């Protein structure tokens, strides 16, 4: 068929669901927000309807990442990178301290981010168990009723669990899927 990825004999293979989803989204968008806003809203709604209809959609957990700023800045980058992978079961909404000398109100900002998260993930390095910022963030998570998990950040070494943060797990895809289910 002209302009298609399908030949005439396989035209039955065409999937109309994206077209139907877009049409429903466009109609809904124009009813709620007439004009250009309706088209934009409708397109987004159609794409969402289509995604929901797919079999392998991953619902990503919103994760606040806590780490030892002084010793494990590289781990933060690894977590952010992993969260951006399509098959990742989580997305990072914020991540612990961002600078060596924190702002006076960093605890307020951390608490607000923890409140928005589904779970707090502690990435554990050799000294994390005694990092004051990590300990404060875990206390906030407990006060806010958020679950806390901790993952060993490096392949080799001796690691001590952070107090009140639960069991210490190896950082593997299998563990992430299980812990973030």
Q: What oligomeric state do these chains adopt?
A: single chain
Proportion in helices: 40-55%
Distance between the termini: 43 Å
The outline comes out as elongated
Structural class assignment: alpha/beta
Question: What is the strand content?
Answer: 5-15%
| Sheet with most strands | 5 strands, parallel
Radius of gyration over all CA atoms, rounded: 22 Å
Low-confidence spans? none
In total, the number of strands is 5
Main sheet strand line-up:
2-1-3-4-5
Q: Mean pLDDT, as a whole number?
A: 80
Fold and architecture overview:
The protein is α/β, with parallel strands linked by helices and 181 residues long. The protein contains six helices and five strands. It has a five-stranded parallel β-sheet, with helices on both faces. Helix 1 runs antiparallel to helix 2 (36-53) and helix 4 (106-116) crosses helix 5 (132-143). The model has no long low-confidence stretch (mean pLDDT 80).
Task: Please provide a brief summary of the model.
The chain is elongated, with a radius of gyration of 22 Å. The protein starts with 16 loop residues before the first helix and ends with a helix.
């Amino acid at each position: 068929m002209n302009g298609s990825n399908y030949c005439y004999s396989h035209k039955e293979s065409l999937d109309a669901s994206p077209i139907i989803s877009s049409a429903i989204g466009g109609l809904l968008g124009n009813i709620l927000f007439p004009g250009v806003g309706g088209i934009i809203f409708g397109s987004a709604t159609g794409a969402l309807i289509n995604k929901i209809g797919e079999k392998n959609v991953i619902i990503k957990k919103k994760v606040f990442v806590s780490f030892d700023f002084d010793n494990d800045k590289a781990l933060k980058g690894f977590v952010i990178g992993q969260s951006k992978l399509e098959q990742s079961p989580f997305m990072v909404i914020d991540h612990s301290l961002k600078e060596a000398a924190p702002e006076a109100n960093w605890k307020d900002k951390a608490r607000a981010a923890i409140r928005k998260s589904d779970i707090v993930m502690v990435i554990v390095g050799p000294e994390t168990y005694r990092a004051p910022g990590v300990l404060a963030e875990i206390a906030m998570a407990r006060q806010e009723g958020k679950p806390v998990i901790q993952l060993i950040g490096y392949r080799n070494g001796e690691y001590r669990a952070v107090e009140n943060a639960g069991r210490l797990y190896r950082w593997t895809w299998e563990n992430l899927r299980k812990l973030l289910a």
